[in-house]
Amino acid sequence: MHIYTLLLMSETLRNIMVPGLIVLSIAAILGLLIVIVSNVFSIPVDEKKEALLAALPGANCGGCGFAGCEGYAEFLANGSSDTSMCSVGGAACAMELASILGVAASLPEPKVVRLLCQGTREHTSPRYDYRGTTSCNAAHGLLGGPGSCTYGCMGFGDCIAVCSFHALSRKDGIISVDESACTACGMCVKICPKNLLQLFPKTADVAVLCKNAWPGNETRKNCTIGCIGCKKCEKACPSGAIKMNGPLAVVDQGLCIHCNACVAVCPTHAITNL
Fold first, then answer.
1. In the chain, where does DSSP find H-type helix?
2. pTM to 2 decimal places
3. Which CATH number fits domain 110-200: 3.40.225.10, 3.30.70.20, 2.30.30.90, 1.10.3720.10?
4. Do 110-200 and 47-101 fall under one CATH topology?
5. 234 Cβ neighbours under 8 A, 6+ residues apart
6. Which residues, in sequence order, are CB contacts of 174 under 8 Å at separation 6+?
7. pLDDT tens sequence across 69-108
8. What does the pLDDT look like over 218-234, one tens digit per residue?
């Protein structure tokens, strides 16, 4: 009886161990195959690219022109020395990138977004009661939006939704920019259906905050603070920084000497200090 029990236990142990050994052998073979395959198909790590990527802010905003920070890091790793393309990281980021590349830093020009519209509820009026999707792109497709100025800001906030830095808000029916929070990434610029959000150098202190293309009499009917194309600013500018683009005055920031002569003569205050 004792011998029978031992034989039974031995048989049971063998029945357990043999499948176990088979499984372990298969696992070992598969593990070896995985190691071999990973070595054969492995992609070498570009240490320079990884260092550049770590130096970037990780906002992935696309302001540099690439899909994200990794695209810009790869661009630099492949031979470019333009370290000025990240507006979010600013000068500090540009200097760190240059240090990694071993080149002189090219610094980004400090910029900020401005809204080229002052058509608040005080200065404009509604044309119809809009009850559609609360989206600028949607409303723009319906006769240019519900406001009396079809060139002006509709204030539905598509730009607010894409701003990762909480620099935009809605105030009195139009968009307001918090310049201290704006990183000039350009996401809001891309999404505005009327191109009312534009990047300006931070040194710029005068602009025509209007984009309408109406003659003066039509502008006056629809917005009390719009540019009426009177040319008074163009005539008053001593540096030739203001030119007319059709009925709309435009300031060349490169020629502006910040004298404010244009601001003083504008009858509607469409041209103003920033």
1. 2-41, 47-55, 69-77, 90-101, 136-140, 158-162, 187-191, 216-222, 232-236, 261-265
2. 0.78
3. 3.30.70.20
4. no
5. 242, 243, 244, 249
6. 115, 117, 118, 119, 120, 152, 153, 155
7. 999 999 999 999 999 999 999 999 999 999 999 999 999 9
8. 999 999 999 999 999 99
How confident is the model over 119-141, as pLDDT tens digits? Answer: 999 999 999 999 999 999 999 99
Q: What is the pLDDT of residues 199-213, one digit of tens each?
A: 999 999 999 999 999
How big is the chain, counted in residues?
274
Domain ranges of the chain: 47-101, 110-200, 203-274
Cβ 145 vs Cβ 139: under 8 Å = yes
The domain made up of 47-101 is a member of CATH 3.40.50:
no
Contacts of 225 by beta carbon, 8 Å cutoff, 6+ apart: 118, 119, 123, 210, 268, 269, 270
What single-letter amino acid sits at 182?
C
